[in-house]
Amino acid sequence: VPVQSFICVVFGATGDLTLRKLLPALYYRFRDGQMPGDSMIVGAARSGLDDAAYRARARDALHAHVASTDLQGEVVDSFLAQISYVQVDGTGDTGWPVLKDVLGSAGERVPVFYLATSPELYGPICRNLARHGLAGPDARVVLEKPIGHDLESARDINDRVGEVFSEARTFRIDHYLGKETVQNLLALRFANSIFERLWNSDVIDHVQITVAETVGVEGRGGYYDRSGALRDMVQNHILQLLCLLAMDSPVAMQADAVRDEKLKVLRALRPIEPHDVASVTVRGQYAAGAIGGNPVKGYLSDLGEPESNTETFVALKAQLNSWRWANVPFYLRTGKRLPQKMSEIVIQFRALPFSIFPREAADLQPNRLIIRLQPEEGMRLEMMTKDPGPGGLRLRPTGLDISFEKAFATRYPDAYERLLMDTVRGNATLFMRRDEVEAAWGWVEPIIEAWESRPERPRPYSAGSWGPTAAIALIERDGRTWHEDV
Ligand code: BG6
Asked: Is the Cβ atom of 414 under 6 angstroms away from ligand 1?
C-alpha cells in the first residue's frame, strides 16, 4: 500500500534501537518502494556528527542487521542519500534552529517525530518541537516503550506530550503489535467462526503466554536494572497479547474500536493483592549456566554489580473479572537466558467430561491450540486420533498444523516496518492509547510495590533453564503444567 511522502526525524539517532531496528526497517520500506523520493530521514542526537559520519554509521548498521542478500549496493546508496543528521540537545536549546532549517517547509510531506530516547526526554523534546514551530497540525509523534517507570511517571509523560500532540497524533509503540503473528491473532479470532464460539470459560480450561529469550541484558544493563522483566515485558508486550486473546469483538477494525475492547480487558484484570503476591507471582534472576552448550555468565556479572534486586524472569497467574473468562487463569511467563527464544500462546481446552476408552488404550490429553508467535511461526491444534494399525483401538495426540513459513513463501517484515508506515498513514490501530498504558501500569504497579516491600530477593535460576522451580510450582499447584515443546 503506497504511503505519502514523509519526513521522519529520529531522536536518539545513535542509539541501539535506531541502528538495530529503525534504520533497517526504513531501508526495507525504501527498497520495496514505500519511501517516495522526496521523503527524508533525519537523525537527531547529541553527538557531534556530520551527515557523512552518520551515513557511515547507518551503512554499518544495515550491514550488521539486514540480511546481506537484501542489501543491493545502489539501493543502499540511494537510501543513505535520503538521510541527514542534526546535532540537537533534546532538553536544551542547541540545534533546534538547524533542525528547523533542515526540515524546511514540509509541504505535502508528513512530519513524523520518532522519540527513540529515554522516556524522561519525551516531555522536553515535545516542548521544544512546539517552541520551534515544528509541531504543526500534520505532525505526529511516536513514543517508544517504556512510557514511564510507573503509573505516575506515565501520566506525567502523557500529560506533557499531550500539551503538544493530541491523542490522535500520538503513536505509542508496542512493537509486539506490529509482529505478523500477533496481528494474525485478530484474524484467527475474528475472521473464523469456529473459534469464537469456543472462546470462553465453558470450553477453555486455561491460557498460557510464554515469551522466552536466550539473550541476557546485552549491554543494556543501565536501563534494564532499573526496569526488570515485569516492567520491560509484562506491562506492555505480554498484557497486549493477553488483551488480543481475551477481548470481545470490536465493532469494526478501526483504531478506537479495537482499543476500547483492549481497555476493557485491562480494566477487568483482577488486582493482585499484597497477600496474594507470594502465591501468584514468581520472580527470578539468572545465575551462570549454559545455553546450547555455551557457558554464559550470571546477571550480576553481566551487570558488573555485586548485587541487584532486579528480576530477569517473571511468572504470574492472572485472572479476569468477566463472565467470559470466569475461573480461566492466564499463566504468563517471560525471562532472559532461557533455553530457547520462543514466544507462544497455549489455549488449553477443558478435559473430556468422561472417557469411553479403556485407560490402557489412551492417555487422553485435552485439546490444545498452540499459537507460535516466533520463531517457526505457526499454529497447531492438538487432537486425539487413532493410532493406525490392526492392533486394536489405541489413541494418541496428533497435531493439525499450519506452518506460516510453508503456507506463505514470503519474507516476514519486521514489526517496525509495519508500524512506521502506519504512523505515516495515521492508522493508530496497532498502537497503545493513553488509557491502555495507564491501565496496564495500574495493574502492574501494586505487584512491584509488594515485591519491594518484601525481604525476599528474586530467586536464582541457572541460565539455560526454564526459570526458578517456583515458576513450575506456580502452575502445578493448580494441577496444570507449562507447555514445553523442546
Ligand atoms: C523489548 C525489550 O521491548 O523487547 C527487550 O525491551 C526484549 O528486553 C525485546 O529483548 C524482545 O523483543 P523481540 O521482538 O526480540 O521478541
From this structure: no
Task: Look at residues 174, 177, 214, 192 and name the one whose alpha carbon lies nearest to residue 402.
Answer: 192
Is residue 242 within 8 Å of residue 174, measured between CB atoms? no
Q: Tell me: the pLDDT tens digits for 295-311? A: 999 999 999 999 999 99
> Which pLDDT tens digit goes with each residue over 225-264?
999 999 999 999 999 999 999 999 999 999 999 999 999 9
Q: Give the containing element (helix H, strand E) for 386.
A: strand 378-386
In the block, residue with C-alpha cell 516503550: 145
Mean of the per-residue pLDDT values of the chain: 94
CA of 432 to the centre of ligand 1 (A): 17
| Binding region for substrate | 175, 179, 213, 232, 336, 341
Separation CA 157–CA 416 (nearest Å): 23
Residue 63 catalytic? no
Please indicate whether residue 344, judged by its CB atom, sits closer than 6 Å to ligand 1.
Answer: no
Q: Given a cut of 90, is residue 444 above it in pLDDT?
A: yes
How many Å apart are CA 309 and CA 226, to the nearest integer?
A: 10
* Binding site listing: 46, 145, 175, 179, 213, 232, 336, 341
Closest atom of ligand 1 to CA, residue 415: 14
**Do residues 237 and 415 lie in contact, with contact meaning Cβ atoms separated by under 8 Å?**
no
Mean pLDDT of 140-159: 96
Half-sphere exposure of 208 (CA within 13 A, CB side): 27
User: In 454-486, which positions are buried (b, 16+ CB within 10 angstroms) versus exposed (e)?
Assistant: eeeebbbbbbbbbbbeebbebbeeeebebbeee
First to last CA, the chain: 39
Angle between helices 73-81 and 23-31 (to 10 degrees): 110
From 65, 213, 225, 312, the mutation candidate for ligand 1 (largest count of ligand atoms within 8 A of CB) is: 213
For ligand 1, atom 14, the nearest C-alpha belongs to: 176
Residues in CB range of 404: below 8 A, 6 or more apart = 180, 181, 184, 377, 378, 412
Cell of 412: 516476514
ipTM greater than cut 0.90:
yes
